[in-house]
Task: inverse folding
């Protein structure tokens, strides 16, 4: 297999980024990762190299933004001039992603996610690299009037995090409309969970997790005393919120096929795709699936709803199936199996011990 184009991956040491980097390397791409390690560790990329082997590892390079502030545009320009002028396309993962934190501290999200991304787009334009796969989110749908969510639904994000994704989608559409050289794919993720089947890569958030599955795993390995379930009085069969959980490896494969389409299709414009399973699973159903996979009974505390959380959101994936040839392969049992393998082999994440 010959070596393909060079791809710049912002946030490539993070949870979804690192899994996608594995798949990109296996598909023959050269990958340059740009990350400030704000919520990631370089060890993840070391494990990526172990997984793909020495030959493919030669196609991976990592660039740390030492100042931990990738928003600073002059620094970005220097990095691009010295390191990334050869990039053929960008996959943009970098950004803050906790709904609750965004409600409590919206300016941090507007500053980091919006200003940082706008500056990235400026640098891409300066060096004529105008092919972008953007990490968007199902939060752009807010609480839709009906489900499953279809890409042409009205967008009405319910929280500051979701609004940053919505604003950046609008900016992408305006950029492409003003300059037809831009090719942009917006990937709206639903709820990424699971881990690499080897157990070597997984989600390792810093501090108390904001998402369900890393919280579950930290309770299962004894790092946290109990699982807080936020919202038990929703109008759903068991009272807990319903989401579309997707295996991170399915999500990674979705990025590879989106990138291939981006590189091969001249008239793509700016287009959005849902990446989910098309099935809704409640929080308590997911907890039960994890208990089956791990053989552990988890202590649960039922808590009030969090501000900004929707009752039920899941995807229509017809468009991705038809136009990208992509469909999720894994169900919640496989997601929990791989999540537990990662957690049991790495109870403290990428650290050996605190």
Result:
């Amino acid at each position: 297999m010959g070596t393909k184009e060079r791809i710049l991956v912002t946030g490539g040491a993070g949870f979804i980024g690192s899994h996608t980097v594995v798949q990109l390397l296996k598909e023959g791409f050269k990958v340059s990762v740009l990350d400030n390690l704000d919520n990631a560790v370089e060890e993840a990329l070391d494990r990526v190299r172990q997984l793909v082997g020495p030959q493919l590892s030669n196609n991976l390079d990592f660039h740390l933004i030492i100042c931990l502030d990738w928003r600073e545009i002059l620094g970005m320009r220097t990095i691009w001039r010295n390191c990334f002028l050869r990039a053929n396309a960008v996959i943009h993962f970098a950004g803050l992603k906790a709904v609750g934190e965004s409600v409590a501290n919206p300016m941090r999200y507007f500053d980091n996610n919006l200003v940082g991304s706008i500056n990235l787009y400026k640098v891409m334009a300066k060096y004529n690299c105008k092919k972008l796969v953007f990490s968007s989110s199902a939060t752009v749908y807010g609480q839709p009037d009906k489900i499953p969510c279809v890409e042409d639904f009205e967008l009405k994000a319910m929280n500051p995090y979701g609004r940053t994704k919505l604003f950046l989608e609008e900016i992408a559409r305006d950029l492409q409309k003003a300059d037809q050289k831009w090719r942009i794919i917006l990937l709206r993720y639903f709820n990424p969970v699971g881990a690499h089947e080897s157990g070597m890569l997984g989600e390792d958030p810093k501090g108390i997790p904001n998402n369900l599955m890393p919280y579950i795993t930290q309770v299962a390995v004894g790092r946290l005393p109990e699982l807080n379930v936020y919202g038990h009085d929703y109008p759903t069969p068991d009272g807990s919120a319903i989401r579309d959980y997707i295996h991170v490896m399915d999500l990674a494969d979705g990025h590879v096929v989106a990138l291939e389409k981006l590189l091969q299709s001249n008239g793509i414009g700016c287009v959005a795709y849902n990446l989910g399973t098309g099935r809704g699973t409640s929080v308590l159903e997911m907890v039960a699936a994890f208990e089956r996979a791990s053989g552990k009974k988890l202590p649960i505390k039922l808590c009030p709803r969090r501000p900004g959380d929707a009752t039920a959101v899941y995807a229509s994936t017809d468009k991705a199936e038809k136009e990208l040839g992509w469909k999720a392969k894994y169900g919640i049992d496989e997601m929990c199996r791989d999540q537990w393998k990662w957690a049991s082999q790495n109870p403290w994440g990428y650290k050996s011990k605190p």
User: Anything to note?
Assistant: DSSP finds eleven helices and 13 strands in the chain. The chain has a mean pLDDT of 93.
